[in-house]
Write a structure and sequence with these properties.
By secondary structure, the chain is an alpha+beta fold. Helix 4 (78-95) runs antiparallel to helix 12 (314-322), helix 6 (134-148) packs across helix 7 and helix 20 (585-602) runs parallel beside helix 22. It is flat and about 120 Å long.
């Protein structure tokens, strides 16, 4: 695959995953990025299968006994519940760095959690032995199976990776002692740890195979792969939970194996409810699903998660310690929403780029290409054709016939083209002429020599970086010379309507041929440019269709965002902090959308982090400003994120206020109005944003809009041309049957009074829903 380093392989088959976790205080977030997923697994496994042949049990169909699984659940003690709560406090201290990692860390907390789930006495041997613990349940079950299959001398394996035999309290000695008390002979109970070497281990396995040892206790590492004692095995017991699915498979593989005399065998797994056990078994199950899909003879899944994590993260410990499943759901939702927001941002960024191309780039490019086509056509017409002579004449005759008396012309003709037959005559393309600094050369070889000399004679500073020198004309094109310092080459430019470039060499005749080749390819360039125009027009039409598309996962993002808000409310994480509730995820998304609009609309580069500094008052966020064409009136648009309104002002007077209303009045805490605002911002168009409703304008300020978009006071005019403004002209009012009231002098400056009147009217209408006028059908569907 030509991967020379790990980063190359990781970018092809790996993925970093960012998990958002709770802060220790429970009201904020912190992200953690780790390499935790594999993708493109079919391609990866195709490489692996070049040297690996995978045959799983379902493919081989081996003669093994039927396995029956039974999960035995026990309740935690009060002591275990209290210990579990301390894990939450310890995790808080670790996350807030109140404790050194050498003293306490997530790995220690996880291991202590596993010990506590196994038996509380592993935390403190002085704690009481709970008769209903899973260890005692296991002892009871082992004895029951031992007694039931006494005549067949069936055997059992007990797996426990923690608390192995030692001089201190341990589960192995505890189980053995209890079994002996129940009546199991001590010689029939053995620990695999008593074997010092492989020879002693094989001796123990022999005794298990013939039934001398009926209960064998050991860890997955010592009693997993390589253990062949299945002959009389009837049951295995998994007291603790291993980290890796492979360990669980190895345990099962000791009994579900060829050579077992029992047709049916039993696998018992013991779990202490509401502790780390349940979560770990669930994690193992999910991991095993991925492994089973990968390690198969069939095509595997495309993506799988890493299965080598050996600690629980903060969110997992917190969820287990509190017994609240919503914490884990919140963590998953945080990650999903973050991913969807990133995808939406990328989608919108692409749409913005396409919109810019539709408005600016493609039209300009098409116009440029069309102009280039015109220029190329003119250049093709202006290109001086080759001279042609009939091939039945001798070259030297042609030379003599072509000789002229003009001292400034060289008359020797040199054959440069290929023969082209026409009837019995041959027409031969001939060199025309080359003019250098006003002197014309008709002989190709001589012209080539003078051209080389001319190039050599040019001073370096005349053709330096970005400079070019006019040296002559060829076939009706000006010849410019410049030096390309990057390639260390002299190059030429033939300038007509367009500029045509090439490179000079060291051969006299070859340089002229190179210029001919450039000019001969003009028809080809014309066809190519015509094709470019068609392609640009096609791309323009495609882009127009693309910008109409909506974010394909918009509904999913909306659903996940709403669920996240609901889970936050269920967790009651934001109750004590009104501002944090206000500045929740939805509000942050609105702020981000506003910054995107401002940056794209006004060509700025603001950051979301600077939002509070830009707009310290979120009840009055200025989003648009313009003036009427005559510059007489100002139009301002602001957004109120406290009362969820969009306000339009003319000369600082409120003209119109659009209210965003609740979707669900029974559960307003979800803040669905913010989703409406966010969707609305995504569809904003500046011209539509600053458009003023003429009815509202006349109602508030008494102004109307003319055909040019300017605002004016109709009563300030003198329609009857009597020298009196219509506002104060009683004759005009009477003739037009206008009921406009008594206009005193005090009414001339009534803007503030009208504004107060408008505000009073708005207050009287408080609580009423205003009909929303959507400016685009697509935006309406999105909202």
């Amino acid at each position: 695959m030509h991967h020379q380093h790990f980063d190359s392989w990781a970018s092809t088959f790996g993925e970093t995953v960012t998990a958002i976790e709770l802060n220790p205080e429970g009201n904020g977030y912190r992200s953690k990025t780790r390499f935790a997923k594999f993708f493109n697994l079919p391609e990866l496994m195709n490489i692996v299968k070049q040297f690996m042949d995978i045959k799983t049990a379902d493919v081989l169909n081996l003669p093994v006994p039927n396995a029956y699984y039974e999960t035995i659940k026990t309740k935690p003690t009060e002591e275990q519940k209290q210990i579990l709560e301390t894990f939450s406090e310890r995790a808080d201290r670790v996350r807030s760095k109140q404790v050194d990692s050498s003293v306490d860390n997530m790995l220690l907390i996880t291991n202590d959690g596993k010990k506590m789930a196994l038996d509380q006495r592993l935390i403190n041997p002085l704690l009481p032995d709970d008769p209903n613990s899973k260890v005692n349940a296991c002892v009871s079950n082992i004895f029951s199976v031992w007694d039931k299959y006494k005549e067949k001398k069936s055997t059992q394996l007990v797996f426990c990776d923690m608390s192995t035999p030692s001089s201190e309290f341990n589960i192995y000695d505890d189980i053995k002692g209890k079994l002996v008390k129940l009546g199991v002979p001590e010689k029939e109970i053995e620990f695999i740890h008593n074997a010092k070497n492989n020879k002693e281990k094989d001796a123990i396995f022999d005794k298990v195979r013939n039934g001398e040892i009926r209960v064998l206790l050991g860890s997955t590492q010592k009693m997993g792969a390589g253990t062949n004692c299945q002959d009389k095995l009837i049951a295995i017991h998994d007291i603790d939970v291993p980290w890796r699915p492979a360990d669980l498979e190895q345990r099962k593989g000791r009994i579900v194996r060829q050579g077992n005399e029992n047709d049916d065998v039993y696998i018992f797994r013991y779990i202490t409810e509401n502790t780390f056990d349940a979560y770990l078994f669930q994690t193992l199950e999910n991991k095993q699903k991925y492994i089973s899909q990968i390690m198969t003879s069939k095509t595997p899944v495309r993506v799988a998660e890493d299965v080598d994590e050996a600690t629980l993260n903060y969110a997992e410990i917190k969820a287990l310690a509190t017994g609240n499943p919503f914490i884990r759901e919140k963590m998953d939702l945080d990650v999903e929403v973050s991913k969807l927001i990133m995808l939406e941002s990328n989608f919108k960024s692409n749409i913005y780029k396409l919109e810019d191309k539709v408005i600016n780039f493609y039209p300009a490019e098409i116009e440029r290409l069309k102009l280039k086509i015109e220029h190329l056509r003119k250049d093709i017409e202006r290109t001086e054709p080759y001279k042609e002579i009939e091939g039945n004449k001798e070259p030297k005759d042609v030379v003599n016939e072509g000789r002229k008396e003009n001292d400034n012309e060289q008359t020797s003709i040199f054959d440069t083209g290929t023969d082209e037959k026409e009837g019995n005559k041959e027409k031969i393309s001939k060199f025309t002429s080359l003019t250098l600094t006003g002197k014309k050369y008709n002989d190709k070889k001589i012209a080539g020599e003078f051209l080389i000399n001319k190039i050599k004679s040019i001073k370096k500073e005349e053709v330096g970086e970005g400079k070019e020198t006019l040296i002559g004309q060829y076939r009706n094109f000006d010849i410019y010379v410049f030096y390309d310092s990057f390639f260390n080459r002299y190059k030429f430019k033939l300038k007509g309507e367009e500029e045509h470039y090439g490179e000079f060499g060291t051969d006299e005749i070859g340089n002229i041929t190179r210029m001919d080749n450039v000019l001969d390819k003009l028809p080809e360039r014309l066809e190519q440019t015509i094709g470019d125009v068609k392609e640009a027009e096609k791309q323009l039409e495609t882009a127009k269709l693309e910008i109409q598309k909506k974010f394909p996962q918009a509904e999913l993002l909306k659903e996940k965002t709403l669920r996240l808000a609901e889970v936050n409310n269920l967790l009651d994480m934001e109750k004590g902090d009104i501002k944090e509730n206000q500045d929740g995820i939805l509000l942050k998304e609105v702020k981000k959308e506003l910054i995107n609009f401002i940056n794209n609309e006004y060509g700025e580069e603001n950051r979301v982090e600077d939002f509070e500094e830009m707009f310290p008052n979120i009840s009055d966020i200025g989003v648009a400003f313009t003036t009427t064409p005559d510059g007489e009136h100002e139009i301002q648009v602001s957004l109120d994120l406290i009362h969820y309104k969009r306000n339009i002002y003319v000369d600082n007077t409120l003209i119109e206020s659009h209210a965003y209303t609740y979707y669900d009045k029974e559960n307003p805490a979800i803040q669905k109005e913010l989703l409406q605002i966010k969707s609305d911002i995504a569809c904003w168009n500046f011209n539509e944003l600053v458009s003023v409703d003429e009815g509202k304008l006349k109602e508030v300020l008494g102004l109307v809009i003319d055909e040019d978009g300017n605002f004016y006071d109709p009563l300030a005019k003198d329609m009857d041309l009597d020298g009196v403004a219509d506002r104060y002209d009683a004759d005009f009012r009477d003739s037009n049957v206008l009921d406009i009231g008594d206009f005193e002098k005090k009414d001339r400056n009534s803007v503030l009074e009208k504004l107060n009147h408008f505000k009073e009217k708005t207050e009287r209408q408080n609580g009423k829903e205003m009909e929303r006028i959507d400016k685009a059908a697509e935006c309406k569907e999105m909202i």
